[in-house]
Amino acid sequence: MPDDSIKKAPNFIRNIIRKDLETNKWDGRVQTRFPPEPNGYLHIGHAKAICLNFGLAREFNGSCNLRFDDTNPLKEEEEYIHSIIEDVKWLGFDIEGHVFYASDYFQQMYDYAVELIQKGLAYVDDLTADEIREYRGTLTEPGKESPFRNRSAEENLDLFIRMKNGEFPDGSKVLRAKIDMSSGNINMRDPVMYRVLHASHHRSGDQWCVYPMYDWAHGLEDSIEHITHSICTLEFEDHRPLYDWYLDALKIHHPQQIEFARLNLTYTIMSKRKLLQLVREGHVNGWDDPRMPTISGMRRRGYTPEAIRSLAERIGVAKRDSMVDMALLEFCVREDLNKNAPRYMGVLNPLKVIIINYPDHCEHLDCVNNPENPESGTRKVPFSREIYIEREDFREDPPKKFFRLAPGREVRLRYAYFIKCVEVIKDKKTGEIQQIHCTYDPATRGGDAPDGRKVKATLHWVSVHHALSAKIRLYDRLFTIPDPGNAEKDYLEYLNPGSLKTVEARIEPSLQGIEPGTRIQFERKGYFCVDSDSKDHRLIFNQTVTLRDTWAKLEQKK
Q1: Between the CA of residue 107 and those of 41, 166, 212, 299, 445, what are the distances in Å?
Q2: Given the DSSP bridges, would you call strands 539-545 and 433-441 parallel, antiparallel or unpaired?
Q3: 12-102+217-333 — its CATH code?
């Protein structure tokens, strides 16, 4: 369930609902809805809307419907429906008994259309799609009426019934509302309500040969479900007069529509069309690629639902579009994982160290699972004469302020001993360092030196003969600029070629058999999640987030 401990940022929609409850505007009811179109996977922007709609309903003891706006059979797939349901549940919201489909209301929508025809408020038009666009006019010039606008109600009803019965080919006729072709709001210039479309629907099959347009269906669905607060993003503000007109003309339940600014996140895009292009053209490895801003991608990467809900509350709700820094989302992820993710040791770029004075045997050291959670306990990790450390933790000729291992220098091994580098072994042909020979001080086991000497660095490690091999996927930003969707060039020009790097790591044996989806911290390296592609004999980890916002530091240096 959502965490009530998350601090709630002020938002104007919460204040509207409070006032409505005080005045008993909706008889004390709060009924919201989240209405996705099942034509793609949900992304982080949808997550904000999910948290807002379901969160407000929960906060005020109301309910929220998950309603699929499945009015376009050409773009909708069952795969998307299943993924959306999974995403909403994963975010922590209960949808049992509250899943609905626009297609369930097709007959009722059709009946409402007949009612408008009979009232003289809708007509069948024979203009082509291009002609309708031409007749609609521009922002500065009024539209002009269709030559078919003044058909009688009887003729329009006959034609509409025949449209439904499949007598006309696709695109030959549409049903339009009769409103005002000179309106300053283009949406009010006789909008199309139905089009002829001979296509099989994923739920209704071949029952219908006409399908409702989104603007016609949207307000009716809210009305049929007796929604009280119809919460939409800002692009629907100009459509609200049209929804109002439909509901007023039909004299049916009229929800209150409230618009808010959608979530825009730096270094990614939120357009489902563009995300679909990334998938279809192979720029990413599917909708759940961990580089994608999709909820499924973030779940696979290791982000937690608690972190996403925390982000939604932190950014609040506003009436003006803004850009949220990816660093804030990553901060929320770190904040949650720091408390809950167990620690392990893994070496991503191994360099062998031989402790020449260590006995030829193995001992098991006590390691803390999570210092932020005392109840997490400890585990045993094998330590032996040969270990791996990170190659970057050694410099033969160390620069200033490099405090890790170097010739003649002493460092601490995490949970183990002090070691000192005494020899560097190199490949005679290439000069590449192959291994480091060190000595250890047995008196420093798990603590400080008895004589009081100090070291300035603590390194993580794994035992060579006990380590498991693992594939580690390291991720960077998907795009190289903060706002690729609004850049001068095509957004694909800004794809980051280094957004995915794969390395072969050595990890401690405690991770044997770890379940896919488990989130951990590799000490000093960051947070990682076991990928669903992992098998018993082959572990794959996705980098979730670094321990610090290293990207922000790079940005400051530019």
Answers
A1: 28, 16, 11, 38, 76
A2: unpaired
A3: 3.40.50.620
Please give the average per-residue pLDDT across 75-84, as a whole number: 95
Predicted TM-score of the model (pTM): 0.91
Is 453 marked active-site? Answer: no
Q: Are 235 and 40 in contact (CB under 8 A)?
A: no
Domain with CATH 3.90.800.10 in the chain: 106-213
Choosing from 173, 189, 272, 343, the catalytic residue is 272
Binned at pLDDT 50, 70 and 90, residue 279 comes out as very high
pLDDT of residue 556: 44
Q: Is 52's pLDDT higher than 50? A: yes
Q: Determine the distance from the C-alpha atom of residue 317 to the mean position of all C-alpha atoms in its chain, rounded to a whole number.
A: 18
The confidence band for 8, taking pLDDT boundaries of 50, 70 and 90, is low
Does the annotation mark 262 as catalytic? yes
> Where are the domain boundaries for CATH 2.40.240.10 in the chain?
344-466
Q: So what's the architecture of 344-466 in CATH? A: Beta Barrel (2.40)
Catalytic one of 29, 37, 363, 471? 37
Q: In the chain, list all ranges with CATH 3.40.50.620.
A: 12-102+217-333
The CATH code of domain 106-213 reads: 3.90.800.10
State the pLDDT confidence band at 558, using cuts at 50, 70 and 90: very low
Task: Dig out the tokens for 342 from the structure.
Answer: 């167990």
Cα Dmax for the chain:
103
Is position 456 annotated as part of the catalytic site? no
Of 262, 314, 379, 391, the catalytic one is 262
- Per-residue confidence (pLDDT) for residue 255, from 0 to 100: 97
